[in-house]
Amino acid sequence: MMEYINRTYREYAGEERWRSFVVCVKETDLWIGVDVRSFRAGIIGFVTRFVQDLRGEMEAYLVTDPEYVSALCPYMPRPTAPAILHEMAEAARQAGIGPMSAVAGAIARRVGEAIRTHFGVEEVIVENGGDIYASLQAPVNIAVFAGESPLSQKIGIQIPADATPLGICTSSGTVGPSLSFGKADAMMIVCKSCALADAYATAFANTIQTADDIPACMARIGKEADILSAICIKDDKTGIFGGFELKFF
């Protein structure tokens, strides 16, 4: 979802809390925020090398298994595939769609956890084309960008620190280049698993053609135990699920 997200937190992330930087490797475009007290300059080079190595490992396998890339329904890689491709495939299997639906969320999680492990940071947010991994010590507010909808950036949720680490992922059928079979302006899903949030966001966005589809979609979302929170926006209508505090901007 490279062009989808209007990266509000890239513009408004407070310098008193975050030291932020961008890492771009081919299609992977990461905005990373690390708490000011934990930030070290070496993190930037580390992340660049980490993403280069991770993408190289994934790409080397995918050359040998092109069906993995093109699959639009659940597809499991061979046992020799990198662990991240198995993670993506399992998340997509649970959501009922193809494994590449989970790639941005899976990469965001891997990068965030690598930063935590190698540098012992207190807080880190990794945004990968609109899909977010967050590990926090204090709450953070996330607004939903929904293209031309009048609700775009007007509604969102507060992510409590004690619920993290988790993934906050958004899919759209009206904005950006990502494949979607629906017409949702935004479908935001929050799960403990970032890859699963990514896959579910795509899967449920696929079901929205008009605002009339929102109630049935939200009812289905409410039956998924792994989904902690969700916001669907289509035109001037919204559906909301979950226990996180709703925010208006």
Helical run tally: 7
Rg over C-alpha atoms, rounded to the nearest angstrom: 17 Å
| Regions with little confidence, pLDDT below 50 for 5+ residues | 1-10
Helix content: 25-40%
| Rounded mean pLDDT score | 92
Task: Describe what this molecule looks like in 3D.
With about 250 residues, this protein is of the alpha+beta class. The chain has seven helices and eleven strands. Helix 2 (about 40-60) crosses helix 5 (about 105-120) and helix 5 (about 105-120) runs antiparallel to helix 6 (about 195-205). The two termini are about 25 Å apart.
Please give a quick description of this structure:
With 249 residues, the chain is of the alpha+beta class. The protein is 33% helix and 26% strand.
Which characteristics define this entry?
alpha+beta; 26% strand; single chain; eight-stranded antiparallel β-sheet; 249 residues; disordered N terminus; 7 helices; three-stranded antiparallel β-sheet
Itemize the secondary structure elements and their pairings.
Elements: H1 8-12, E1 18-25, E2 28-35, H2 42-62, H3 66-70, H4 83-95, H5 103-119, E3 124-128, E4 131-135, E5 140-143, E6 155-159, E7 166-171, E8 186-191, H6 194-205, H7 214-221, E9 227-234, E10 237-242, E11 246-248
Antiparallel strand pairs: 1-2, 2-3, 3-4, 4-7, 5-6, 6-11, 7-8, 8-9, 9-10
